[in-house]
């Protein structure tokens, strides 16, 4: 396999053995971007001059005997992270010229680990879509099929990895924004436990980079192998030095098991709110079969599983309560009027979205209390199981859909149309309680599109789903180069 598609772990070994140089790897990556990214449009803000300088510095450091986890390895960064000297726009045209003066904490950690940052990857407007397109940088296409989306909001990062533009990337996730692009593009991603990875500096343009703990969102790693996810998570994980880092040190527990045969897994493919497409069901069952063949304990149902319908409703309400927090007063009042007209018996996700948009503080506290009940339910569940295997979204990558009315969009699942945002329920299964979830490739659909699944693990036991991902990669294969 050519260097552009090798793992970060493999490149690090080659660098240590003096088989390659960082300058050579960086020039190869830049050449590949310049040749192929016109069709993919993943790298929206190149930073090649500084990347070349960083590569020279990495080679000089290695010649002095230095070694760091990512020393000399080319990587990319989601556009939404502050990188000193580069624009941070979140795809919003009014901030086209906004350039932060300081790196986000995770960009600083990449640099400290020796990474060579090639540039920034494309995102949707305001990070508010399952696709990646905006008026500043245009549309990112899926390397497997350019007529389809690469996902969002970390779609540029997933497309960059699938196309061989750097070995690693960092993204963020609140509605599957790491996991969905990984699923669509056939790569790996890990949504860490809520609060495990500091996110200071991953903020909208002009917003001060304060160490504010989010309610749902996380930042995390993306890669082409499961082991590379662990390599990058070890660089990213840890409290913010301005807050918990003053007193706390990170000590993640080891994975619960070293062999597939020892894992206890619940497999899910059906959700009460939305159908699961046949291609995704096949991917879930491919993983389930590999687990069973390896001797793992596999179940299809358990009374310990928290209620999926209530979990989806809570997630939807909490997610959308934050999405309109800064709406103009007149727009907010219109939403209140629409919510008041809802029937008390309407328990659809559309109603949950609208009710969440107009939550009072009292409403939010009540929902958050129910979230804590779900977290406790998951603790009981993970006393008997080690992981959940389930979909990330109901379909492989779908054709580009740029309808500006997101609530009017539909997602086609085996010929049946569903509200576009209903597909978030699978992402929300881990997001709402703050659980770690690893996205892994699970083969190709009959149309030749990547299909992924997620492995949800116990809170702060991130190494357990990551280890399971590594073992599954060995059992069923992993990343494949788009043809």
UniProtKB/TrEMBL annotation:
Report if keyword Hydrolase is assigned.
yes
Q: What is its EC number?
A: 3.5.1.4
Q: Which GO terms describe its molecular function?
A: amidase activity
Q: Which Gene3D superfamilies does this chain map to?
A: Amidase signature (AS) domain
Pfam families membership? Amidase (PF01425)
Tell me the ranges covered by the Amidase domain, including all copies. Answer: 25-464
List the keywords (alphabetical).
Answer: Hydrolase
The reply on keyword Hydrolase is yes
Q: Which domain of life is it from?
A: Bacteria
What is the protein name stated in its UniProt record?
Amidase
Q: Which lineage ranks, top first, belong to the organism behind this chain?
A: Bacteria, Bacillati, Actinomycetota, Actinomycetes, Kitasatosporales
């Amino acid at each position: 396999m050519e260097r552009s598609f090798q793992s970060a772990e493999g490149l690090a070994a080659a660098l240590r053995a003096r088989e390659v140089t960082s300058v050579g790897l960086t020039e190869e990556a830049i050449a590949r971007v310049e040749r192929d990214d016109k069709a993919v449009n993943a790298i929206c803000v190149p930073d090649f001059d500084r990347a070349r300088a960083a590569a020279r510095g990495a080679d000089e450091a290695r010649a002095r005997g230095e070694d760091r986890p990512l020393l000399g390895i080319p990587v990319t960064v989601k556009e939404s992270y502050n990188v000193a000297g580069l624009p941070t726009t979140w795809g919003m045209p009014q901030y086209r010229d906004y350039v932060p003066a300081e790196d986000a904490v995770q960009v600083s950690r990449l640099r400290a680990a020796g990474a060579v940052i090639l540039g920034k990857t494309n995102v949707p407007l305001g990070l508010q879509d399952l696709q990646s397109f905006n008026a500043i940088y245009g549309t990112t296409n899926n390397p497997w099929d350019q007529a389809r989306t690469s996902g969002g909001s970390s779609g540029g990062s997933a497309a960059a990895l699938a196309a061989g533009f750097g070995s690693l990337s960092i993204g963020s996730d609140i509605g599957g924004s790491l996991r969905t692009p990984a699923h669509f593009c056939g790569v790996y991603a890990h949504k860490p436990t809520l609060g495990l990875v500091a996110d200071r500096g991953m903020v909208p343009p002009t917003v001060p980079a304060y160490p504010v703990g989010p309610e749902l969102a996380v930042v995390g790693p993306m890669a082409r192998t499961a082991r590379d996810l662990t390599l990058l998570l070890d660089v990213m994980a840890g409290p913010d030095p301005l807050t918990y880092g003053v007193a706390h040190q990170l000590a993640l527990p080891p994975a619960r098991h070293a062999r597939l045969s020892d894992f206890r897994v619940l497999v899910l493919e059906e959700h009460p709110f939305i159908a699961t497409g046949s291609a995704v069901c096949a991917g879930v069952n491919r993983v389930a079969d590999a687990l069973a063949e390896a001797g793992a304990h596999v179940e299809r149902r358990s009374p310990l599983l928290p209620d999926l319908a209530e979990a989806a409703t809570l997630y939807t309400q909490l997610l959308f309560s934050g999405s309109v927090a800064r709406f103009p007063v007149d727009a907010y009042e219109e939403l209140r009027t629409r919510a008041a007209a809802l029937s008390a018996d309407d328990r659809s996700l559309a109603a949950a979205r609208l009710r969440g948009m107009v939550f009072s503080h009292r409403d939010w506290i009540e929902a958050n209390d129910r979230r804590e009940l779900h977290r406790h339910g998951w603790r009981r569940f993970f006393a008997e199981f080690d992981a959940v295997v389930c979909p990330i979204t109901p379909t492989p990558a779908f054709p580009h859909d740029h309808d500006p009315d997101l609530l009017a969009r539909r997602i086609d699942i085996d010929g049946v149309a569903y509200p576009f945002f209903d597909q978030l329920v699978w992402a929300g299964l881990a997001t709402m309680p703050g659980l770690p979830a690893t996205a892994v490739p699970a083969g190709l659909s009959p149309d030749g599109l990547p299909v992924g699944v997620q492995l949800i693990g116990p809170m702060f036991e991130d190494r357990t789903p990551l280890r399971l991902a590594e073992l599954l990669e060995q059992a069923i294969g992993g990343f494949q180069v788009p043809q």
